[in-house]
Amino acid sequence: MCGMQQSRFRYRAVARKIADHIHTGRLAPGTRLPSVRRLSRQEDASITTILHAYELLEREGVVEARPQSGYFVRADPDRMPPEPKESQPPLRPAYVEIADTVSDLLKITRQGDYVPFAAAIPASELLPVRQLQRIMAAISRRTDDAGIHYDLPPGNPELRSQLSRRSIDWGCRLGPDDFIITTGCMEALNLGLRSVARPGAVIAIESPAYYGILMTIAGLGMQALELPTHPSLGVRPADLERILKRRKIDACLLAPNFNNPLGSLMPDESKAELVELLARHEVPLIEDDIYGDLHLGETRPRTAKSFDRKGLVLLCSSFSKTVAPGYRVGYIAPGRYFEKVEQIKFMNTVATNAPCQIALAEFLRAGQYERHLSRMRESLSDQIQSAAAIIRDTFPAGTRVSRPQGGFVLWVELPPGTDSHHLYNRALENRINLMPGLAFSNSDRFRSCIRISCGHAWNDARRAALAKVGGIAAELAPKNSAGKKLAKKKS
Q1: Among 207, 314, 386, 477, which residue's beta carbon has the most beta carbons within 10 A?
Q2: Hey, what domains does the chain have and what are their CATH numbers?
């Protein structure tokens, strides 16, 4: 009986010790806790004791168990800042005029001596570098001329075959001959736009939208029409329907799965409604699904393409965010526009890097991609939640933060009147690089917002850098907005 009592007190003691670390901030939300066996060794306690401790913390809502992943510190939604407000852009098309501004901002990202919060690029330690190196070496040994010749459009047959198999996970049943391999997702989007619209055309996009999309629209001489966008649900089909009744739209370019920078996820029923709505109006949808495989939930969401019955959805993605940014291998499933896209692809770049196509085909064929994704998603989830906790604790009152359901960026809405471009310049003085909100709209409506990339693992230097950004933001926030809220909080 005495031994049983000691065991009961022991697991409670272990649980309290972990809870203390969480409440004092030493274990941030999203942090993965030690495995049961590892903690058993650390605490010199039985596996049963550790299991009971974790189960107690789970019942108390302090930690959560994730299937096949372990136990994680649970985020406290009541303590997190609210989400950004739904955007309300001016509902009129305009030629994009921010290309020069964005080009200037991107020059800094090429310098390696800044803390990298600006570019949405995953860190090398998250990528399967060694596996790809081994595959490349094996390809070189296997044949003398592997990858030497052009792999003309539509591209490597084995890679297209592997994409066909993966399309089942997207809710589609696409064949190898439905795909064209491209030089990254940006070329896929570019080809899609050029195949469905001409200079002067009106392209409906999310707001905020990825600056690369805005620059592409600018480069093609087209106009952007920014749509109201919910921070969690993306574009609402009902809003788009009201606009279609009033004005002509030549094409839509949307990211239903995890818009960059919001990380929003359009519900499946809304995707179906969107595709049906656009089909009635014969408006093509260019679907940007580059973050689709980086879902943070249990299952991969369906693509809008999976609801397409008329060939009007042009599905675009790449392996740049998941496997190898430098390989520049993407793809497009352009539906009824296949021949047009294939023709423009040849005129644009002739072909896509052949050795990289072969390597990715082998990586997928060997079944390594899904295992890699599982580990990567787990790391990104931790990094996003840790960043959100730092923002909660160090940014001025009145700050709002997105709740991304996929990808690895956070959209931060600072108190009204805070100039994020001024914040950007102050951050650069401290060797910290971030992306100000003016890059994500043609209407200058997001001047008080910033985007933070969480593609790198957290260390003391990065935590301190993000906290420094929060401190600068607090200095820049108008005292009549954030200051009053802070005073109320303290009183």
Answers
A1: 314
A2: 2-73 (1.10.10.10), 129-369 (3.40.640.10), 370-490 (3.90.1150.10)
